[in-house]
Amino acid sequence: MKRWSDDDQYADVEAYFSGRAELVVSVGRRLEPGDTVLDLACADGRLAEFLEAYGIGYQGLDTVPEMVEQARAHGIEAEVGDLNDYVPPEPVTATLCFRAIYYSRDRAAFFRHVAGYTTGKLVFDLNPRQYPLATIREELHAAGFARVDVRPLFAPQRVNLPRIAALALRTLERSGPLARLALRYRFTYVVAASL
Ligand SMILES: C[S@@+](CC[C@H](N)C(=O)[O-])C[C@H]1O[C@@H](n2cnc3c(N)ncnc32)[C@H](O)[C@@H]1O
To answer: Which amino acids bring their CB within 6 angstroms of ligand 1?
Structure first.
């Protein structure tokens, strides 16, 4: 079986990507079967099968040709390109940008650019210690995104937690003030900016 390039980066690929797909579908404007996503900085397109399970069409984009070749070798539609200036041939319902928002040369311009070809929402993860959420909200509103929803994301990427610890983290994710306190020190948000 062909290996995926991110097999070494994620302790539990199934749990991590099925959780991410669920967030992509449910945070902000809900995605429905038949909707389409463009996954910016898609690497080998690992998210594709988890979104296709929801009936969502997937196309990926990455600057690295080897990544795009790997995605295609798994039957995933993907293109070589730069997220700063790529425009898909048709508008997409949702644009995703995970672990890659820092590749935008000018974030406010990037948000405007994405708003030009996205009909539903932009979804990305954000470290609030690196980029203040208030600034990000302002930039998204200025780019035309009317509604901004955020959800704490505590799923560990590199650590395979015992079931009980994973459950505790999921509970903390939904705990409101406690989750916001934890985010001062660790973890990320998933941000969904809807048009
Ligand atoms: C940390 S990986 C994240 C991959 C995937 N989104 C995930 O969450 O597992 C960053 C990816 O961004 C790609 N990348 C870097 N700069 C880019 C750019 N300007 N446009 C598109 N992709 C880029 C890299 O080739 C790499 O595959």
So the answer is: 6, 40-43, 61-64, 67, 82-84, 98-100, 103
Ligand 1 atom closest to residue 41's alpha carbon, by position in its atom list = 22
Contacts of 178 (CB under 8 A, 6+ apart): 172
In the chain, where the domains are located: 5-194
Residue (of 20, 47, 8, 32) closest to 151 by Cα position? 20
Q: Given the CA of residue 104, which atom of ligand 1 is nearest to it?
A: 19
Contact 179, 133 (CB under 8 A): no
pLDDT tens column, 108-135: 999 999 999 999 999 999 999 999 999 9
Reply yes or no on whether the pLDDT at 7 is more than 70: no
pLDDT at 164: 77
Residues 6 or more apart whose Cβ sits within 8 Å of residue 137: 148
pLDDT for 1 beyond 60: no
Ligand 1 midpoint to CA 168 (Å): 30
CATH fold of the domain at 5-194: Rossmann fold (3.40.50)
Q: How far is the CA of 183 from the centre of ligand 1 (A)?
A: 24
Kindly state the tokens that stand for 21: 């797909």
Contacts of 68 (CB under 8 A, 6+ apart): 60, 62, 78, 79, 80
